[in-house]
C-alpha cells in the first residue's frame, strides 16, 4: 500500500454498448470476473475501496463494497463517477486526501499502480496524475485530490464538461509510464473480441 492515504475507486457504471449492454466488469476472464480481478489488484494498494455504478447496486453485492451512484444528472461519463468518488471520500473518509480511479474493465492492472501515480505527481509538483502505456494515455486511470471536487462539480454542472483531459489540463497532470510488453496493464475489454484476447493473455501470462 502507498504511504499516502488513498481511496480506491472502481468505475463500473459504463453502458457497455459494444458488448450488447449489461455489466462489462462481470465478464469472466481466466475463471474470474474482471471486477474481481480489478478489486484484487487495487485493494492492497489503497486505504479503502468503493465502486461507482448506476442502477441497482445489488448486482455488485458480492463485492461487499459500498456502491456509489453518480450525483449529477444524466450519464455524464467518467468525470461524474470520479466526482461521486471525491464526494464520498469527503463525507466518509475525511482523513483520505486522494482518490485513485480505475475502470472496471481492465483485467491486468499493475500492482504498483497507486504508488507510481503518486510518485509521478510528487516528482512533478502537479496535483493530478494519470497512467500511460506505450504511446497511449489512460485518463481514467488516475490520482485525484479530494480538494478539487468543488472545481470538478462546477465544470460538470455549470460548464457541461465531459472530457477528462480538458479538465485535468487546467490543473496540470503528471504521467506515470508502464511498458506494454509482455502485457499492456491497461488493456480494456470493450467487445467480444477483446474478451477472447484477454482470455488468451490470462492463459499465457497467469501473473499478468
Task: Reconstruct the topology from this structure.
Elements: E1 6-11, E2 28-29, E3 32-33, H1 34-42, E4 48-52, E5 67-68, H2 78-92, E6 98-103, H3 113-124, E7 128-133, E8 136-145, H4 149-157, H5 164-171, E9 173-178, H6 192-204
Parallel strand pairs: 1-4, 1-6, 4-5, 7-9
Antiparallel strand pairs: 2-3, 6-8, 7-8
Helix pairs in contact: 2-4
Can you describe what's shown?
This protein is of the alpha/beta class and 208 residues long. It has a single domain, classed as Spore Coat Polysaccharide Biosynthesis Protein SpsA, Chain A (Alpha-Beta Complex), CATH 3.90.550. Helices cover 32% and strands 22% of the residues. The chain has 6 helices and 9 strands; from the N terminus they run βββαββαβαββααβα. The strands form 2 sheets. Strands 5-4-1-6-8-7-9 form a 7-stranded mixed sheet, sandwiched between helices.
Structure characteristics:
alpha/beta, Spore Coat Polysaccharide Biosynthesis Protein SpsA, Chain A, seven-stranded mixed sheet, two-stranded antiparallel ribbon, 6 helices, 32% helix, globular
Briefly characterize the structure:
With 208 residues, the protein is of the alpha/beta class. 32% of the residues lie in helices and 22% in strands. The protein contains six helices and nine strands, in the order βββαββαβαββααβα.
Please list the strands of the largest sheet in the order they lie side by side.
5-4-1-6-8-7-9
Q: Quick one: CATH class?
A: Alpha Beta
Architecture (CATH level 2) name: Alpha-Beta Complex
- Supply the helix-strand structural class: alpha/beta
| Integer average pLDDT | 93
Question: Gap between N and C termini, in Å?
Answer: 19 Å
Amino acid at each position: 500500500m502507498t504511504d499516502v492515504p488513498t481511496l480506491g475507486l472502481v468505475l463500473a457504471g459504463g453502458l457497455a454498448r459494444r458488448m450488447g449492454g449489461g455489466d462489462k466488469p462481470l465478464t469472466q476472464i481466466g475463471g474470474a470476473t474482471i471486477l474481481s480481478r480489478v478489486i484484487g489488484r487495487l485493494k492492497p494498494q489503497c486505504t479503502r475501496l468503493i465502486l461507482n455504478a448506476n442502477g441497482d447496486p445489488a448486482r455488485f453485492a458480492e463485492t461487499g463494497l459500498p456502491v456509489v451512484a453518480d450525483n449529477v444528472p444524466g450519464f455524464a461519463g467518467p468525470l461524474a463517477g470520479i466526482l461521486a468518488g471525491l464526494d464520498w471520500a469527503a463525507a466518509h473518509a475525511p482523513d483520505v486526501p486522494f482518490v485513485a480511479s480505475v475502470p472496471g474493465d481492465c483485467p491486468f492492472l499493475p500492482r504498483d499502480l497507486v504508488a507510481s501515480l503518486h510518485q509521478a505527481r510528487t516528482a512533478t509538483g502537479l496535483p493530478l496524475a494519470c497512467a500511460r502505456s506505450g504511446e497511449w494515455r489512460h485518463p481514467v486511470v488516475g490520482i485525484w485530490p479530494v480538494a478539487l471536487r468543488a472545481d470538478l462539480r462546477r465544470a460538470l454542472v455549470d460548464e457541461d464538461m465531459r472530457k477528462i483531459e480538458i479538465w485535468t489540463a487546467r490543473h496540470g497532470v503528471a504521467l506515470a509510464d508502464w511498458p506494454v510488453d509482455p502485457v499492456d496493464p491497461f488493456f480494456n475489454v470493450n467487445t467480444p473480441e477483446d474478451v477472447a484476447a484477454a482470455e488468451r493473455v490470462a492463459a499465457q501470462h497467469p501473473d499478468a
